[in-house]
Amino acid sequence: MFIFSRIKRKLKSYSRWGKHYTWHERHTKVPNKTIYEIFKNYAKNNTEARAIEYYGKHFTYGQMLNIIADTAESFMSLGVKRYDIVTIIMPNTPEALFAFYAVSKIGAVANMIHPLSSSEEIKNCLKNTESKYIVTIDASYEKINIDLDDTKVEHIIGVSAGNSMPLLMKIGYFLKMGRKYKKPHKKMFISWPKFLKLKSDRVNIIKERNVRDNPAVILQSGGTTGVSKGIVLSNGNFASMFAQAKIFWKGVEPGDRILSIMPVFHGFGLALSIHCPISMGVESVLVPQFSAKTFDKLLNKYKPNLVFGVPTLLEALTEANNVKNLDLSCLKYIVSGGDSLSFSLQQKINKYLKDHGAKCKISQGYGMTECLAGAIINLGINDKAGCIGIPGPQIDVKICEPFSQKEVKDGVEGEICISSPIVMLGYLNNEEETNNALQIHSDGYTWLHTGDIGYIDPNDKMIYYTQRLKRMIISSGYNVYPKQIEEIIESHEAVLSCTVVGIPHRYKVEVAKACIVLKNNYLDTPLLRSSIKKYCEKRLAKYEWPYKYDFRKSIPKTKLGKIDFKKLQDEG
Question: In the chain, is it the N or the C terminus that has fewer CB atoms within a 10 Å radius of its CB?
Fold first, then answer.
């Protein structure tokens, strides 16, 4: 019954974006392989090439394959088997990748958690996943040194951040930091070096013919607007993302380098900043702890060809002034994702890139963890404000009326919906939220309702992002769009950044609050505040005027570096 609707859908998608891809790109076959097998496919034929770098220490693909094999054996000796959930609480270290790929090799599921999560968040996640095994960085020992009796945890594998450092650095780390961390739950604890000495029979690894739909990874939602959810992703999601990445990144070659700042526990970091690049032969420079003040030093030292980051991270580059005559001609791509990129910041970064010899402009990507953070990308196609580009060749996008499945005409704003093999399996143990996000439409396809507002330009068919649906403010019956207010205020010469949120109001239900950070060379005076207010009111409709102006030193961020809208709203 869906045949005619599906043909109509495919023709519509092809008429919009088909010209941007070759026949081969549109029909690229997604391999029926696990995450580990995709990595191994390149690694086994390039064993001497460099795969990752960590504080100056290099690991070749051959070395990684051997350590991953040892890690998988050690996991199995502890009882890990297919479909078991292994919780990994790690920053960007080699051990995080060894554990991640070993879990995939066994056919188990990697549950990735932010090391800065609270004890309560970690415990809730352990209970929700019924995870028996934990791999954790030493800095998080205290977080898990809590009552675990009501969880199913049996083994804790402790990793020192110094394990893979060069010898002198490793000694320095232990003396300064490592010795301060006390081992948690000693009866369940085993250190990483001792863990790797455990052995098991490799024949326990059973290969399946169809692995595409098997769960492989659980990532936590960002939690910028409330409690995080476990997002279950499959081998097929990662395989499809890998196939898309090879098409998107034209000109990227084996031997190139990527500065892997985005963390391994984040979809943007795990899939696009680490797994896809190293599976293509791109060396990943692992950065476990990022400092905004030394961003330019990192670029100067490693000369990367690719850099991915959230907007606030990339903005930090324009503020760092440690390296004179910084040469960025090495860059092939610098991609912003994970959060919306304001037009003023886009222009600011592009000017910085041009002034430092870069031949590329910043590319804006769009996605969310529920579709592995990379569904739509604008690789220099269009510089217009809000343009996020086009979907990948195996990704379809349509715009629907909010809270419905009715598709709107091009040029009309609505909710961005995505249908693709990169879309998640669902939310862990949360059928209601899964059914809200994943909906079968009249064409028979399953569509991810993103909760983001955007539109398709009727002329060039580029997709434009407006803002989060949840961020839309309804004030006295009027729809108020915070992003539009932010753009106006940020265009004032004295404003560095602005974030607008909705706060409750007795009569209007909700009103806008503008949180403003001034540039360093401007003093916060009543005269300047009045100037910004008048500037804003002159350029906005009266119902869009901010009810409250909050001048502050900085905008609060979540652990993932995104703007913490919930905190700003809670402050009132």
Answer: N
Give yes or no: residues 193 and 262 share one domain: no
The pLDDT value recorded for residue 200 is 65
Question: 497 and 526: one domain?
Answer: yes
Model pLDDT for residues 183-213, shown as the tens digit of each residue = 999 999 999 999 999 976 554 565 666 788 9
Q: Which residues pair with 391 in a beta bridge?
A: 376
Q: Give the Cα separation of 229 and 568 in Å (integer).
A: 21
For the chain, the first-to-last Cα distance in angstroms comes to 51
Burial class of residue 419 (count of CB atoms within 10 Å of its CB; 0-12, 13-18, 19+):
buried
The dihedral formed by the CA atoms of 25, 28, 33 and 34, expressed in degrees to the nearest 10 = 30
What is the domain-level CATH number for residue 70? 3.40.50.980
On whether both 186 and 310 belong to a single domain, the answer is: no
Pairing of strands 155-159, 387-391: unpaired
- Residue 77 pLDDT: 94
Q: Is residue 255 scored above 60 in pLDDT?
A: yes
Task: Please tell me the total number of residues recorded for the chain in this structure.
Answer: 572
Q: What integer pLDDT is reported at residue 344 of this predicted model? A: 84
Q: What is the mean pLDDT of residues 437-450?
A: 95
DSSP H helices in 403-517? 431-437, 482-490
Q: What is the mean pLDDT of the chain?
A: 91
Residues 136 and 210 in one domain: yes
Domain termination residue (choose one: 442, 467, 492): 467
Q: What is the pTM of this model?
A: 0.86
Does one domain contain both 441 and 477?
Answer: no
Q: What is the total count of domains within the chain?
A: 3
Is the pLDDT reported for residue 382 higher than 80? no
Instruction: Please give, one letter per residue, the 3-state secondary structure of 481-498.
Output: CHHHHHHHHHCCCCEEEE
Task: List, for residues 92-128, the tens digit of each pLDDT value.
Answer: 999 999 999 999 999 999 999 989 888 888 998 999 9
485 and 459 within one domain: no
Domain identity same for 267 and 159 = no
How far, rounded to the nearest angstrom, does the alpha carbon of residue 386 sit from its chain's CA centroid?
19
Residue numbers of the domain that contains 136:
35-218
Asked if 372 and 35 count as a contact pair (C-beta separation under 8 A), the reply is: no
554: left (phi over 0), alpha (psi -120 to 50) or beta: beta
More confident residue, 568 or 342: 568
